[in-house]
Amino acid sequence: MRYFKNIGLVILLLIMPVEVFSQLRPLDDMLTDYQYPYEVHFIHLKTQNNDLKMAYMDVKPKIPNGKTIMLLHGKNFNGAYWEQTAKDLSAKGFRVIIPDQIGFGKSSKPQHYQFSFAQLAANTKAILDEVAVNKTIVLGHSMGGMLATRFTLMYPETVEKLILENPIGLEDYKALAKYQTIDDAYKSELKNTYESYKNYQLKFYYDNQWKPEYDKWLNLLAGWTISKDYPQVAWNAALTSDIIFNQPVVYEFKNIKTPTLLIIGTRDRTAIGKDRAPKEVQPLMGQYQELGKKTQREIAGSKLVELENVGHLPHIEVYPKFFDALYDFIK
């Protein structure tokens, strides 16, 4: 059985373009041989009859300003893509906490786990308790924006300020698109390749304008797809896709009392389940130039910074503009 699985991997590598093959290498489920930009620590979680490891980076400034900021990654990423953000925040005196959520990056990929944003928030709070941080600014990107919202609603006394960078969940996907079972989502995840990930990112993240600096984040995802551990990674990806679809936060933005900043790339059209929505509904989904304004109206006193002609990843695509907006809000 293993022999035939390996044949598929060999065929994939043989048909892959030479320039891709030279960059791509198999990555195990915990990214054990991938170097993160800062030292990685772990907490051990005994949860849902699982013994899990949750990874995080704790970047301490040379000259502290007394403030901490926690950076929450999106679904197709891990904490490593906050490298430049953490470097510059640390230089400004901030302590920077960067978790890898369970199911992502260097954290455990459980087989039997009831994922929920509330559970992920509780796991994240355990990291803050471990490092004795009682008050923090929270920045969440993409899926991390949904988690940051849930975290803020669960632990309002802990969150000094909230920043949502192109968060998904600004609309209720299950009200717009057909449900996909976890089993079907898993089958879909197993089909992912370097090319499928790149095509998706070109469409939603970078408007068909690829730059060499994007490769490192793409290769982190694609490296999993050529690893023997990919089925476990794909299973966790399917489980987290399910909570994005079924656990909307859009109806609770009105309950946020924390000072909030929305950083919105207006070219973004990301919408979970768009391909399963009626044809006439699909063009109406993921309209971030409208969703950002709508969400600002829902969160009392919130501030909106719109980045024109920018996609789903402002802190990668137009980093200086992103950081200026962020730092102006938290300094």
User: Total number of helical segments?
Assistant: 12
**Annotated CATH topology:** Rossmann fold
The amount of helix comes to 25-40%
By helix and strand content, what is the structural category?
A: alpha/beta
- Rough outline: globular
Widest sheet, order of strands: 1-2-4-3-5-6-7-8
By DSSP, the count of extended strands is 8
Q: Report Rg.
A: 19 Å
In round numbers, the mean pLDDT is 94
SSE ordering: HHEEEHEHEHEHHHHEHEHH
Fold topology:
Blueprint: H1 2-15, H2 18-23, E1 40-47, E2 50-59, E3 68-72, H3 83-91, E4 95-99, H4 117-130, E5 136-141, H5 143-154, E6 159-165, H6 182-190, H7 194-204, H8 215-225, H9 230-246, E7 260-265, H10 288-298, E8 303-307, H11 314-317, H12 319-330
Parallel strand pairs: 3-4, 3-5, 5-6, 6-7, 7-8
Antiparallel strand pairs: 1-2, 2-4
What does this structure look like?
With 331 residues, the protein is α/β, with parallel strands linked by helices. It has one domain: Alpha/Beta hydrolase fold, catalytic domain (Rossmann fold). The chain has twelve helices and eight strands. Helix 10 links the parallel strand 7 and strand 8 (303-307). Helix 6 (182-190) crosses helix 9 and helix 7 (194-204) runs antiparallel to helix 8 (215-225). Pfam families: Abhydrolase_1.
Brief characterization of the structure:
One of its GO terms (biological process) is acylglycerol catabolic process. Helices cover 39% and strands 16% of the residues.
Describe the structure using short key phrases.
single chain; 331 residues; alpha/beta; Rossmann fold; 8-stranded mixed β-sheet; 8 strands; disordered N terminus
